[in-house]
């Protein structure tokens, strides 16, 4: 895989756009670029739920469905999950997700 992919993080009305290499997780896109509210305590090992995001509805169906482990971890987030909740460590930055908009919970 090569190329770049853009991710837009929105928190408290503030938009932060970052560009990363295709194949990077949205969590690493956030932590590598100091995006507020994405902690990623476990480093992307799907064991902490500190990278919870709400995927913009226009983008949600472009992602593969969450696996069982991710769905279990979403029950431990700081903010009540919704149908658009994902852990950003499980959201890959790809050509198909170039420009994806992810809303970061205020409580995180």
UniProtKB/TrEMBL annotation:
The keyword Hydrolase does not apply. It comes from the Bacteria. The keyword Iron-sulfur applies. PROSITE patterns: 2FE2S_FER_2. Residues 5-108 form the 2Fe-2S ferredoxin-type domain. Keywords: 2Fe-2S, Iron, Iron-sulfur, Metal-binding. SUPFAM superfamilies: 2Fe-2S ferredoxin-like. Pfam families: Fer2 (PF00111). InterPro entries: 2Fe-2S_ferredoxin-like_sf, 2Fe-2S_ferredoxin-type, Adrenodoxin-like, Beta-grasp_dom_sf. This is 2Fe-2S iron-sulfur cluster-binding protein. It comes from Pseudonocardia xishanensis.
């Amino acid at each position: 895989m090569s190329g770049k992919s853009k991710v837009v993080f929105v928190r408290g009305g503030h938009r932060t756009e970052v560009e990363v290499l295709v194949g990077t997780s949205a969590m690493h896109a956030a932590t590598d670029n100091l995006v507020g509210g994405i902690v990623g305590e476990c480093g992307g090992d799907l064991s902490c739920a500190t990278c919870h995001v709400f995927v913009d509805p226009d983008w949600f169906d472009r992602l593969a469905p969450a696996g069982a482990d991710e769905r279990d971890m979403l029950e431990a987030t700081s903010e009540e999950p919704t149908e658009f909740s994902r852990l950003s460590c499980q959201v890959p930055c790809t050509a198909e997700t170039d420009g994806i908009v992810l809303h970061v919970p205020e409580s995180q």
